[in-house]
Amino acid sequence: MTHRPFTIGIIAGSGPEAGMDLWSKLLVQTQNQFGTAFRGDLDAPRVVIVSEPELGLSMDLRANEAATWAALDRTVRQIAPQVDVFVIACNTLNWFAPRIQALLDTLPNVGQFLSFQAVLHQVLTQAGHSHVGLLAAGPVMALDNWSAYAELQSDIEFETANQSEDLHLLIEDVKRFGQKHVGLAARFRSIAQNLSSETVILACTELPLIATPVVGKTLIDVTDCVAQMLTFRAYRARKVSV
After folding, report:
1. Which residue, 54, 104, 111, 123, shows the most beta carbons closer than 10 Å to its own?
2. Considering the domain boundaries, does residue 129 fall inside one?
3. Domain span including residue 145
4. Pair 68, 58: CB distance under 8 Å
């Protein structure tokens, strides 16, 4: 797709702040890529964002699969023709990755879809991590047929939080009250500290919004990993076109 500058797409809505967070991280990672050569606005990434509120149904994916897919289907159809590559700013919704790819295969002149699980698998295997902690919303952390990360278990052993209900409620509270609500960061630290794993994956886009350092833990923000990969692709495409 060479008729316009390289364009990144973000599907948001579950939640809106997660999409904003990913966009912000794209800007930071772009500055890192360019280093001292960064010119500000002119070198910022070209981004298309579609935020669909109905994607919030994914918090109970098992009960809302049909309605969630209907919302995601029309959102993918809207954004895919406008971009070179796109992502969904929600770990849970990446469960639909095979269905999204099947849809894209039927559409002409559309961008590529980059899944969170593909990015995380590459990051963890390249770093040599075979055992990590996993903090996520209920559908993801269950690591069953409804989890986007279930497929990674052949290579990665995940330790999940004992307080799964508390964690799911924490994520819902971030969505309801916003990231600056009193007590959210402390609740996060308490849950993360109880994991035995030294490396902990933040596999919910709400968690990086409230995460603060946890003693003895290395936190890996999947959103930031995705931003790094998207930025690398955009930077490489720009260098090739020059």
Report:
1. 111
2. yes
3. 117-221
4. yes
